[in-house]
Design brief:
Keywords: Isomerase, Membrane, Transmembrane. One of its GO terms (molecular function) is isomerase activity. This is Transmembrane protein. It comes from Streptomyces lincolnensis. This protein has two domains: about 170 residues, Diaminopimelate Epimerase, Chain A, domain 1 (Roll), CATH 3.10.310.10; about 150 residues, Roll (Diaminopimelate Epimerase, Chain A, domain 1), CATH 3.10.310. It has an eight-stranded mixed β-barrel with strand order 1-2-3-4-6-7-8-16. The protein has six helices and 16 strands. The chain is α+β, with helices and mostly antiparallel strands and about 350 residues long.
């Protein structure tokens, strides 16, 4: 890789990541992950020698390729590159980085652009779920600017409308509306991302604290870890001690005209906003009678729109439920408006591979 690797750095939603064509990376996962660690500058808490921004939200990778799925145009593999450990995880999706996949596919010639707008059908390889991203392409080119604004991102950019068809799995993966873990009532939902809903007050938190204050609370961190480990087992995910899912979201009554206030852990750091798929889980969970947080939420009975408050503003998401064949709640329509912006398109030069120990000195 001495000649570097073609790369497009994009902000997708409230995250930032490096986007690659699958053909430009090693096919073997271990070799690919080693290369990505060196590209992003991990492990190093500053990621000083790579593209990473020293935070999980800015240390992300999208790998995109043409899809063999007749219901998709492209395949999108999301990889979370740890900041301070030599770890690359494919155990989750990322709905924010997803916002950049459609524009990237057009930029790289995988999907032809429409004269006014383009829709790209995306298969999310991590879970097998699908999404459709629609965005402006005036004159057959991806729009570089626009007037859409999302909380947590300065300025404006072109809108990306993302719609999610219902996934194949159950909305309530434990089969119950509520579970009790470590003496705490929780609701486990999966509307594209395994998510655990917890009332902040049940953990002696207000739910309005700045993320850094919540991260600094060692007792809270210990409770959250215990809940997450058991929730993972109950949701059929096995041992989640070394994975980033499920996410935990603390819920509190809204304070700024929204439906609910959230603080989401990913899984240790507290999100400065909220992930798209995590928000999809929250919005669906609030509509389930008897679910944790349903009694706190202020919902408009005549609308599918749910405004979810988070530390840097809000996220609007359309969410509806239906009834599955088993009589239990099931996802209906889920859609969200995000923005994405290309930061640079060029060649990235990875840090050299570590020399084997025991060699010549």
């Amino acid at each position: 890789m001495t000649d570097g690797v073609p790369c497009l750095l994009m902000r997708g939603g409230t995250s930032k990541g490096a986007y690659f064509l699958a053909d430009d990376l090693p096919a073997e996962p271990a070799a690919r992950d080693d290369l990505l660690l060196r590209i992003m500058g991990s492990p190093d808490e500053r990621q000083i020698d790579g593209l990473g921004g020293a935070h999980p939200l800015t240390s992300k990778v999208a790998v995109v390729s043409p899809s063999a799925d007749p219901e998709a145009d492209v395949d999108y593999l999301f990889l979370q590159v740890a900041v301070d450990r030599p770890e690359v995880s494919d155990r989750q999706n990322c709905g924010n980085i997803l916002a950049g996949v459609g524009p990237f596919a057009v930029e790289r010639g995988l999907v032809p652009a429409g004269e006014e707008e383009t829709s790209v059908r995306i298969r999310m390889v991590n879970t097998g779920d699908h999404a459709r991203a629609t965005f402006p392409t005036p004159g057959g080119r991806v729009a570089r600017t626009g007037d859409a604004e999302i909380a947590g991102v300065p300025g404006t950019a072109a809108p990306v409308v993302i719609e999610f068809p219902p996934g194949a799995g159950p909305l309530l993966p434990t089969g119950r509306v509520r579970d009790e873990i470590d003496g705490i009532q929780v609701t486990c939902v999966d509307n594209g991302m395994p998510t655990v809903l917890v009332e902040a007050a049940s953990l002696k938190a207000a739910g309005y604290e700045p993320p850094e204050d919540l991260e600094a609370d060692g007792a809270l961190a210990a409770r959250l870890r215990a809940i997450r480990l058991e929730a993972g087992r109950l949701m059929g995910l096995g041992d989640v001690s070394d994975t980033t899912v499920p996410k935990l979201t603390l819920l509190a009554p809204p304070r700024d005209g929204g439906a609910i206030t959230t603080r989401t852990f990913i899984p240790v750091r507290c999100h400065t906003s909220i992930g798209v798929l995590g928000a999809a889980g929250v919005a669906a969970g609030l509509r389930i009678e008897g679910a944790v947080g349903a009694d706190l939420a202020v919902l408009d009975a005549g609308s599918d729109r749910v405004r979810i408050e988070h530390p840097t503003g809000f996220l609007d998401i359309d969410s509806s439920l239906t009834t599955g064949p088993d009589g239990r709640p099931a996802p209906g329509r889920t859609a969200v408006i995000r923005t994405a912006r290309t930061i640079f398109d060029g060649t990235v030069f990875p840090r050299a591979a570590a020399r084997p120990r025991g060699g010549h000195r």
